[in-house]
Every structure is written in C-alpha cells, then in structure tokens.
Design brief:
Its EC number is 2.3.1.191. Homotrimer. The protein folds into 3 domains: 3-94, Udp-n-acetylmuramoylalanyl-d-glutamate--2,6- Diaminopimelate Ligase, Chain: A, domain 1; 100-302, Hexapeptide repeat proteins (UDP N-Acetylglucosamine Acyltransferase, domain 1), CATH 2.160.10; 315-346. It is built from 3 helices and 39 strands. The strands form 6 sheets. It has an 11-stranded parallel beta sheet, with no helix packed on it. Strands 9-12-15-18-21-26-29-32-35-38 form a 10-stranded parallel beta sheet, with no helix packed on it. Strand 22 (186-189) and strand 23 form a beta hairpin. The mean pLDDT is 95.
Length: 346
C-alpha cells in the first residue's frame, strides 16, 4: 500500500517541503533509507544523514533548517517522533488480520467469545473465560478458568493468563508473559518451607503493554494491580500484591518485591530493584541498576544502591574509583604518623 506526501501531511497536519506527489510504501531508519521509504529525524546526532539518505520522505521538526541540499521530500511537523508513531499505527491497522477460531484451538463450551475475535491454533480458552470484541489471540495462548480479557487486546504466542485474572481493553501482552502465577509466599517450618496459598488475582487495566517473558504474580489475598497505561519491558518481575500506578514505565529486568505501591508516571530504568512493603510516590525517576530500600517521595530522581540523589551518586562514583590510591596513601600517612610519635616520645 502506497501513501503520498500529500496524504501523509494531511493526516499528521504537516507542511511539505518538496514533491507532494512523492510516495512511500515502507519505513526505514534515516541512515538506512531506500527509495520508497519514510524516515524521520528528531535527534540532532543524526542530522548529517539527511543530506545523503535515499528515503523518499523524511519527517522533521518544524524548527529544522537544512544547511545543504536535500533530495528527499520533507514534511515538517511539531514532533517528528510522535508523528512517526501515528503513521506506524495507521500502517499496522491497515494490514489484514485474521478472524475466527482455528479448528485446532480448544475453546470451552461456556466461554464467552466476543465479535471479530481471532483464536489461533493450539490456544486454550478454559471454562468460564471471557474474550472481548476484536481481540487477537495468537497460537499457544492459555486463558484460564473464569479469566477475562477485554476488547481490542493482543495476546502473542505462549502468553498465559491464570484463572480468575483480568486483562483490560487495548492491552498488548508479548510472547511468554505470565499473568497471575503464584506469588512467592512460603512459611518457614522445622521441615523446610510450607507454601502459602495465593488466593488473590492479578488485574491489568486498560492500555497496558507487557513485554516478553515478564511476570505479574497474583496476590496472596486481594489483587496485584497494574493501572491504566502502564508499559513494562521484557523480563520484569512484579511480585504479589504490588500496585503500579497509571502510565508508569519500566525498562528490562526491573524487579518489584511484594506489597509495594508505586505511584503514577514513574520511570524505572533497567535492572532497578525495589524492596517490599514500601511506597514510591508519583513522578519518581530511578536510574539503571539502582536499589530502592525504603519509601520515596513524589518528584524524586534517584540513582545508585542504595538509591540517592544523582549528583551525590556521581560525586561518590568519582571517589570510589580513587579508593585504592586513597587507601595506599592512608597507609603511608599512618606509618609516617607512627614514626613521628616515636621521635616525639624519645
């Protein structure tokens, strides 16, 4: 399917610089552009590529002013990256999608299946489960007994939604993610550890995206809750009875221990670890590999382990690198002081 510069500009409310009849049928990074491709420029580090790119159309921010001649047709917009996202969503929506239930799928007779749903081969929809309209279930997905999946949701291959759990509308769950596995609850006894039954559920509200092989455990009692608009990367662990506030984002390998409450619009970089039974405020930003051992106020930015103010962490990191030399110097000073003491005592 082809789109002209004129059609694209009308859709994203942009201004054309060049040939309004230039057409594209695919996307490409600006440094790997080919004829018929649409690219974008938002990071100044990539500006030099625009003068030689082979892409037919390039989205740029309104304040971009070229220093040399450009072959490509430009479309100026308020935010090139956001405009690209809109166009990619339009492109994805235009692709043909399957509907219906594959003969090799297993769907319980009392499961409720909405309109225009696709259920792929070897998917299993168990008794009492509910699937909303326009939801797309890839092969080998399991939706457990009495679980509910909303409308316009995508479950990629090997997603598992345990019994009684809830997934909202417009969600995306990537391959291998698990919603509602048992929380890590064990009671120590003389004979080892006795398992504590996890009788709660896990709830994903609307517009949530869960990365591949990410796990959201069910609650011991009550619910583990992922609020509206949360985006979780691959390989993240959300423990039992955690609540993640709306529109919070977490990068890969973040781990949240049990019963912790995280506020709205927080940002956790990769490999952040959060202790259990604490509260993180709203709009908190945490740098990669940081550890949060206690409650954190809203609007805080943290880095390090234990997590502290980023400026303090940077100064500490500089000192840390000098510690071996400082240790050697301290040893020399101690020996000199001992010598001085001996001389003074004579």
């Amino acid at each position: 399917m082809e789109f002209s510069a004129k059609q694209i500009a009308e859709y994203i409310h942009g201004t054309i610089i060049g040939d309004e009849n230039a057409t594209v049928h695919t996307f490409a990074k600006i440094e790997e552009g080919i004829a018929g491709a649409l690219s974008f420029l938002s990071n100044p580090k990539y500006t030099h590529y625009i003068y030689n790119t082979q892409s037919s159309i390039v989205l740029v921010n309104k304040d971009f002013e070229p220093e040399h001649e450009i072959k490509a047709t430009l479309i100026k917009v308020d935010n090139a990256y956001e405009s690209l996202a809109k166009l990619m969503m339009l492109y994805e929506a235009s692709l043909p999608k399957k509907q219906g239930i594959d003969p090799l799928a297993s769907v319980a007779t009392n499961a409720k299946i909405g309109n225009n749903v696709y259920i792929g081969a070897f998917a299993c929809i168990e008794e009492g489960a509910e699937i909303g309209d326009n939801t797309y279930i890839h092969p080998h997905v399991t939706v457990g007994c009495n679980a509910k999946v909303g409308a316009n949701t995508i479950l990629y291959p090997n997603v598992t939604i345990y019994h009684d759990c809830r997934v909202g509308n417009n969600c995306i769950l990537h391959a291998g993610s698990v919603i509602g596995a048992d929380g890590f609850g064990f009671a120590p006894t003389e004979n080892g550890y006795e398992k504590i039954p996890q009788i709660g559920i896990a709830i994903l509200e609307d517009d949530v995206e869960i990365g591949a092989n990410t796990c959201v455990d069910r609650a011991t009692m009550g619910a583990t809750i992922i609020r509206k608009g949360v985006k979780l990367d691959n390989l993240i662990q959300i423990a039992h009875n955690v609540e993640v506030g709306s529109h919070t984002v977490m990068a890969s390998q973040v781990g949240i221990a049990g019963s912790t409450k995280i506020g709205e619009r927080c940002t956790f970089a990769g490999q952040v670890g959060v202790a259990g039974h604490i509260t993180i405020g709203d709009h908190v930003t945490v740098g990669a590999q940081s550890g949060i051992p206690g409650n954190t106020k809203s609007g805080t930015t943290l880095m390090g382990y234990p997590a502290i103010d980023p400026k303090q962490f940077a100064r500490s990191a500089v000192i840390y690198k000098k510690l071996p030399d400082m240790y050697t110097e301290l040893g020399c000073l101690k020996r000199e002081i001992e010598e001085l003491k001996k001389q003074l005592n004579k």
